[in-house]
């Protein structure tokens, strides 16, 4: 079960390094989502969120499509292709962090839910800042 957490950590590192090379909102959001998913997988693999014999992982039906879309839009943004990916990546990041915050609060991890709220505020602030910077004449 730890293999999914290791893969998620690798994807988070790749996206965060790419985000430092070319600062793009979609890449940063994707890296953040992969890092939070790695932490979630670690909690599942260590038995905190799931018993030792939980074979059916319905949560992956929800998380993996979000991560796949975030990765695709991060790639498009990193390559410099214009399009609605920035808005979609921002919305996807906010939705993903909101879902993480709700799940964390439901399991009693209030500091993780606070971190998700701070992540949402950071994404919204960065999006507003980048929108204001690009509109200057």
Could you walk me through the main structural features you see in this protein, from its secondary elements to its overall organization?
79% of the residues lie in helices and 0% in strands. It is mainly alpha-helical and 137 residues long. It has one domain. The protein starts with a helix and ends with a helix. The mean pLDDT is 79.
Strand content: under 5%
- Any idea what the radius of gyration is? 16 Å
The count of β-strands is 0
Mean pLDDT: 79
State the helicity in percent bands: over 70%
Notable traits:
single chain; 137 residues; mainly alpha; 5 helices
What's the helix and strand layout?
Elements: H1 2-21, H2 25-45, H3 59-78, H4 85-106, H5 110-134
Outline:
The protein is mostly helical and 137 residues long. The protein has one domain.
